[in-house]
Amino acid sequence: MAWALVWAMLAWALIPGVKRSGKLIVPVILLLGILPDADLLFSNIGVMHRTFTHSIFFWTIIFVPLFIIFRLKSVPYFVAVVQHFAFGDLLIGKVMMFWPFNSSQIGFNIAMPSIVDVTLEIAGLLLALAIIIYSRDLKRLFSVDKNNILMLLPLLALVASAVYFASQWPSINSLTSYILSSNLLIALAIGHIILITFIAISALQGLRAMRPKTKTTTQRNNLEKSV
Description:
The chain is an all-alpha fold. It is built from ten helices and no strands. Helix 2 packs parallel to helix 7 (152-167).
């Protein structure tokens, strides 16, 4: 699922003609990139994976009010959701792209892991980092800023997906053996670790900013402002 987050960052940047005034809300973009897979949480009540939450019409209806209110500014966030299944899942699986008008599942169903899957994830990770640096968001995301507490949302989503995947294995040892059995799987695991670490550091900085300031800290901040 990590590729869905990083390619969400790329999708908005590649939209021609979109006015990019203001800062992109990175935590929201990352969360939306993985949101279609929320159907996994409801598998125990009969909801099938990659069905209605992977439909372009489903998300278009949800985003209509945002299109009306925010217009072009909402487009990057819509693309962050849609790219998950219209690009990623379409390649490595099959999705109900046109539900409810058509319940047929379409896709290329490329094996996972594969060289295509790993290449997309690693390339997405590197390009997303480049975009964050180019847009000057890297310093902000690593600064002690209460706004970075929002990074807890994509962090929890990514951790939940990892826990769900791990729960499909009888033991940690068997899962570890499976990952170490292939260089492709090792590359995917490293990519996930890098992404989780990046998001976790940013979220931690947000939590640090929420701590009550001591008198000494307040005086130092006031002195810095006066200077």
